[in-house]
Amino acid sequence: MTPTTTAAAPAPAVAPAPAAPAAPAAPPVVRLRVRAGGHWHAVCDDAELTAGRGVAALLPGGSQVALFKDRAGRTYAIGNRDPFTGAYVLSRGLLGSADGRPFVASPLLKQRFDLATGRCLDDDSVSVPSYPVEADPPAA
């Protein structure tokens, strides 16, 4: 008896797996800067601000600013220290508007401060510093 050889059946052709879709590109990082003491200081990424809420940032020299983004996307910076209590809490205040002017109400005694000028809307003799804010263009 002679051994017989059986040829193996060819393997079925397998189509290559489709390429995975490319991950979406990350949005460009936009840094916000505040002008204080004659210099611009980078404080945070624009994406870190939530409309209707504030954040505090520490500047060189130890001063604090409260940054806010309103629901229209405009960004404001004022001093974070509540002049009525001395507490650094304005970044935790409630945003609102009066006569079309955006303000933050202190979370402690509820005095309102104009976000564009820092003027207290409840006592004309009191104000907090206001600071220009600009966005650095995204890196190319």
From TrEMBL:
Residues 1-12 have a biased composition (Low complexity). CDD domains: Rieske_NirD. This is Nitrite reductase (NAD(P)H) small subunit. Residues 13-22 have a biased composition (Pro residues). InterPro entries: NirD (IPR017881), Rieske-like_NirD (IPR012748), Rieske_2Fe-2S (IPR017941), Rieske_2Fe-2S_sf (IPR036922). The keyword tRNA processing does not apply. One of its GO terms (molecular function) is nitrite reductase [NAD(P)H] activity. Keywords: 2Fe-2S, Iron, Iron-sulfur, Metal-binding, Nitrate assimilation, Oxidoreductase. One of its GO terms (biological process) is nitrate assimilation. Residues 40-140 form the Rieske domain. PANTHER family: NITRITE REDUCTASE (NADH) SMALL SUBUNIT (PTHR40562:SF1), PTHR40562. It comes from Streptomyces armeniacus. It comes from the Bacteria. The gene is nirD. The keyword Mitochondrion does not apply. Residues 1-22 are annotated as: Disordered.
